[in-house]
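Two proteins, back to back. First:
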Amino acid sequence: MEHFSVSLPLTGEYLTTVRLTTGGLCALVGFDVDLAEDYKVCVTESLLILKRNGYLRADICFTVGETLACTVCGVDKNGTKEGELEDEISRALLSALLGKVDFVQGKDGDVEKIEFEG
């Protein structure tokens, strides 16, 4: 298994870069177009959940093997929390697209890490 990690600020222009990177990794493991698109949506939604929970940065670690696993962790929690309804929609979308998704909460009860595999 190989690991690929990236650390980024949670701003709009970097989300596009992450989607392109995720698409390339999906191609490496042989995902079809539909599964690759679903996976890119899941990575983007994970980043948006962290941003809405007050994180300014995120670390993403992909594990490339027979499948593609992803862990998205919030870093630098100094922003304001917003959008609980949007979080619920994002959580439902992640679960619908991938099935098993782990939402890890920090001591304050907010999501600090999201883990999934495709």
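And the second protein:
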Amino acid sequence: MKRFWNAVTVEETGDGYAIRLDDRPVRTPAKAPCVLPTRALAQAMAEEWEAQGDAVDPAAMPVTRAANSAIDRVIPEAGAVAAAIAAFGESDLICYRANHPDGLVYRQVESWDPLVAWAETALGARLTLSEGVMFVAQPPGSLARLTDAVGAHSVWELTALHDLVTLSGSLVIGLAVSRGHLTADRAWPLSRIDEDWNIEEWGEDAEAVHVAERRRTDFMNAARLLTLIRS
């Protein structure tokens, strides 16, 4: 899409905040009105539109993409999205441990055991650990507490939490960022223990590094989105 507007403005409405490109309101790909819950979020989205050159680059507009996703996909299916996020608690990354080599075992213990302890004390969810990749069932009560923690998020917050959880592979890590227990900068490396160990042992693969950096950027954008939603 070519740039067709000169001015970008934020307009308060009865339901929140809208973005206008000259006299035209921004709409989602499904043609729904793009109304945002906070001025901070609307301002961040307006800055993305203002920063566009002659041609619109969607890759440079993470807030706009997230808003579109929230309105077109998450809000209409909030219950299903919350359930999909909560399902990560059934096989959380931090519960599956290596039994060798010793260096990796130690690194997982050092990095993930504090998160297991936090999940029990802060969320009331005692987690069962396992060696290897064989599935281990979590206590029903713990899964219920994790589901409750997900359900405490607004539909807009679910959009950010979904990315935090799916990109990290861990519901606990996502909730730790959401609750302010971890910063995104601290949380992302905790989701990469196994991958970083393999890189140290076998060297980097250029394509894998590119994918990992893109995922890290998306993770940081999700954490920023959560902050903007709550501002």
